[in-house]
Amino acid sequence: MMPKEQCLIIYLCFLYLIGIYIFLYGFFPERVISAHSSVEDLPERVDDLKLARRELYKQRTPRIVLMVIDALRYDFVDGPQSEQNMPYLSSQLRNNCLLKARVEPPTVTLPRIKALMTGAISSFYDVIANFGSEILKDDNIVSQAISSDLKVVFYGDDTWLKLFPNSFLRSEGTVSFYVSDFLEVDDNITRHIDHELEANDWEIMILHYLGLDHIGHIDGPFSPHVNPKLLELDGIIAKIDSGLKIKDPSNPGILVICGDHGMKDSGGHGGTSLSEVLVPLALLNYKCDPSFSHEEVKQVDLTPLLSILLGLPIPGGSVGKINMRMLSGLDRKTALYSLHYNTLRMFELFKTSNPISGIEHEITKGIQFYKNWVLSNYTNNDYYPAAIRFSNAQNEMSSVIIKNSISFDDYVLLIAVILILQVVLFILAYNAFLEFNFKQFSGQNFLIFLSFVGFHYFCCMINECDSKLCSITYKHVALVICLFAIVFYNILLISANFPYSKLWSRLRPDTIYIMLGLVFVLNLASLTSSSFIEEEHQFWYFAVTTLSLYLLPSRYLLFSLVLALQVFLRKLNQTGDKWAHLPDIGDWLNSTDHKHYLTIYYVIGLCFIYKCQRFKYKRKIVDYLDCVLAVGQLVAIFLQKIAVGTCTLGFVHKEASLGITEARVFWVLTSIRTAVFIYFYEKEPSKRNNEISDMILSSSICVLTLLSKAHNVFLFPSILLFSNAFSKVHPKCSYSQAFFHFCIGRLFYFYQGNSNSIANIDISAGYIGLEEYNLFITGLYVGLNMYSGHILSFVLLIKKLDIKDNLSAIKSFSTMLFVSAVTTLFYMVVVTFERYHLFIWSVFAPKLMFICTQAALISTLIFSTASFSLFFNTFNVTTKKII
After folding, report:
1. Which of 33-47, 299-313, 512-526, 624-638 has the weakest average pLDDT?
2. Can you give the residue range of the structural domain that contains 125?
3. In this structure, is residue 23 part of a structural domain?
């Protein structure tokens, strides 16, 4: 690449990343911290009648134990096998309260803890924050308990300790991300229970068990490990319940058992399937109305109930409602006062976004019935009419508040779309001329720019716009000036590189280009449908199979092998939404009875990987050394899989190292092998870049093999075969090669078992070789594993570039950037128009996160490669192949 073109590519990648960030900033806005409630918010009157609020609203139970079981599905507690899975709990629920709690997406742990404690609906931003929890500043039950001098103890998922630091009388956290640990993670909680049940210095105990969730991530809900784990948890429930009753037989504390989220039939969580969003909410030593048992409530409805039982002010941001039948375990005076209190509190939230509403009439009628009941000395029949009206009002207000809590910054979204549109226009302008002319920012242009900014603020003032870009704080004014300067300068550059008529003359009327264009357009069209987004893998299976059949006559044997591999790979991992639960080859290989077959399969796969990742040195001694190091890398990977119990050998047993030692040996060998390459690599300019690309490819394959699941070992040799096959078609055309490799990256993303659902993210890859949680390394490992197909396809594209034509690099990079930018731009427009769609948070928003992450990855890879090339060009290093 020439320096000017390198600078252009770097600038476009930078511009692309800015556009992505700004769009996400506008689509997933920062949450407003809710106001904190206090005892002064408790109503003193009903109409003009004074009430004894501290007598009517006070702590009704000496103790509450909140037992959160991560990934506890509803059918585990109320299903065909529930009496076998949890016999004690099943027997107790005949005379206690079991409700079906519906969880709002995203169904991951951090948002669910926030929802339980605050009663507010969490945002999709919390999915990212789930990997690096911050202090919870919203009003919540824990902070209210501390303000009321109630003592709280906690044991379990250390996410709680990050959200509520220095809030617990006693605590011990367990790391939630070591998903291969089924036993110790729960034993570390259970060992504290006996002591705490004897102690008299706490009112709230929170336990968060993780073992069941870990089983789900590794083996799914139908694993043979599930039943023993449920029996273990049932025994713990029996111990706690018995301990509470022994402590105070006349008024035992209440044991609340609930799941934070459910579990997909295929394992994992994060999506919106019924098995993920329906969890049990069981209350022992507390009776709700028998007619209400097994009814469906929202998970946030637990927040006001816990507050009422503890006599705490309900958190200010809570949208949880209370059904009158849920309070039948309390006396009527307390029950109706609590309904009255929560109704008035919710009405204050409701009024902020709905100043005109008929709901006030329903509340007024309820207040009148309540007043009449009090005046009758609680003897007449006005209790039920009042309770019904308060309950109905809460139902309606809760739904409206949740709906109106969704806010988008449309102005920010528009600016982001314009920025990415400019990236697309830049690429079209360059490909029309195969050169680019830069302009200086003249004084006249500066004056026009200032007028542009002034007009912006004038429009903001006239329209009373509440966008962040209309804010006049220093931070937002600086942001506006920077953004508008970039947009304005881009307009000048694009206008200076018109017309685009030459672009059409470069297009060839070849059938393969028509086929590739059709694949691209159909993929864009599929992004407008929620069903097609959920099953996007089917599109890529069909598209690449069709291309393979079309190209079959040109390379019969090669594409026959490609087609045969596609039949195998698409059955390796079932993915998507509707058929993800069906058994696949991966399930069969990973079953306990077939570990020996998986081991043989994995060893064969490693042999293929050895062949794919080896490259030759001229010096024999160095080549032998590299051979030994390459074999050592693969042996370390194999031993790591044995150590964690994925593979097995009769004479090698699973070790207590949990694969940490083996992974570290792998990284040492990889470092030594890289150092050997740097020291001995050939000095001839004609071969330097061939060797660099070979080394990067070899290292990438080894690292990704370590991070991937054992049954996916054949994906990496397969992607090399696919790249080689499609590179035989129009090998000199950089445009088609870039698009082929983009398609290969997408195809293998789904072959790996990924989908457009958060539930399919394999977080277990993030903890390979780690003794303790590290946010950066964990996130890096998860990302590398998830997008391994895109990474390898990009490295292979670089390797295939024509070393005699420096222009091929800029064509390839601009094509891949163009395809990614148009896809991202089109989808951003779709989600902007569909932002109030019924499935916006369950389907469209997760896809937006995935598509932006993929775009950021591609942009970063291109940015890094172009910067690397520019660095060497600066020092006059002549290159004939781009790296």
Report:
1. 33-47
2. 63-278+285-320
3. no
